[in-house]
Amino acid sequence: MKFWIIAAILCAVAVLIGLSPVNEYFFFAAYVVLTAVTLATAWNILGGYAGYVNFGPPAFFGIGAYTAVVLFKWLGAPLVVQIAAGALMGGLLGFGVGLLTLRLRGIFFAIATVAVVFIMETVMINWRYVGGATGLQLLRPPLTPPFDTYTRMLFVVMAVMAVGSVCIARYVQDSWIGRGLRAIRDSEEAAEASGVPTLKLKLFACVISGALMGAAGAPMPMYLSFIEPASTFNLSYTISALGSAIIGGMSHWGGPILGALLLSTLQQIVTVTISGEVNVLIIGVLLVLFVVLAPEGILGLFKRWLTPSSK
Q1: Cα(first)–Cα(last) distance of the chain, in Å?
Q2: Would the CA dihedral through 111, 114, 118, 123 be positive or negative?
Q3: Which of 66, 213, 242, 293 lies 20 to 30 A from 82 at CA?
């Protein structure tokens, strides 16, 4: 119960920050960081809890973004409807991908999820209604009070979504679903022999993970006021989500939060002070350091420091 109270307080704080006279670039950068938190948390439900490494976040993120564009262009749907539809389409894609690929394991599953990204990108490149390969410019509707800029409003929206995704991840981890997913990660054969419904749990993880990623992608067209396939289905989303979970720690819901905050904040600072091209180098260096020196991530380091060594 205390966790839900904290989550509500965090959402209220996000609203107050969005209404405060803070420099506009803060909200521009914070939106990117919060998107990374949401994607990393969503990725960890399947990749961390169940141990199925998913390279397909751009497919789910992209289908959420393009669903929002279609609804806005076709019906003029408000943002909340776009997000709900993005989550629905992301969940449906996760269900379809799960049915087709979850009997695969290891590298074969990972390669199959990469293929989904390229398939979705190819579909959007050849769909003229959403701009095809050249993309589509969007004319954003007028804002409603109390926000005076889209950047501030979308910061609050993404903050609420990030808190919501963390709440879902925490619930999954502490429930029987999380225990079943961890049993699958440790030994799928042993889990099946013990009566764990492995396929159902993996499908559930795929659907929830996909829905959260789809919801995270839905506000992006309004954030940029533009959309095109190459950037929407960029594999950098995979690197960010996977890297954040590894750096923070994949065995706990708090790991992806720490990893995403550290990684995305560093990337934003480097982009402003040095160059955006250095971002990939930062991710690579951090991943190598944590895989070699701290394979359990930041949370693993904390546990090691707090637990007295036995002699």
Answers
A1: 39
A2: positive
A3: 242
Q: Which helix (H) or strand (E) holds 193?
A: helix 188-193
**Helix, strand or coil, per DSSP, at residue 68:** helix
Alpha-carbon distance of 183 to 171, in angstroms, equals: 17
Task: Scan for tokens 């819901």, then name that residue.
Answer: 253
Domains of the chain: 36-132+143-299 (1.10.3470)
Q: What distance in Å separates the CA atoms of residue 114 and residue 144, rounded to the nearest whole number?
A: 39
Cα(201)–Cα(187) distance, integer angstroms? 14
Please report where in the chains the tokens 């049993």 appear, as a residue: 183
pLDDT in tens, the chain (311 residues): 566 677 777 778 777 787 777 777 888 889 999 999 999 999 999 998 988 888 999 999 999 999 999 999 888 889 999 999 999 999 999 999 888 887 787 788 888 899 999 999 999 999 888 888 888 888 888 877 788 888 889 999 999 999 999 999 999 998 999 999 999 988 888 888 888 888 899 999 999 999 999 999 999 999 988 999 998 999 889 988 988 898 888 888 888 999 899 888 888 887 777 666 666 777 777 778 877 777 788 887 877 777 755 44
Of 207, 177, 155, the closest CA to residue 42 belongs to 207
Predicted structure pTM score: 0.92
Q: Which of 225, 272, 263 is nearest to 34 (CA)?
A: 263
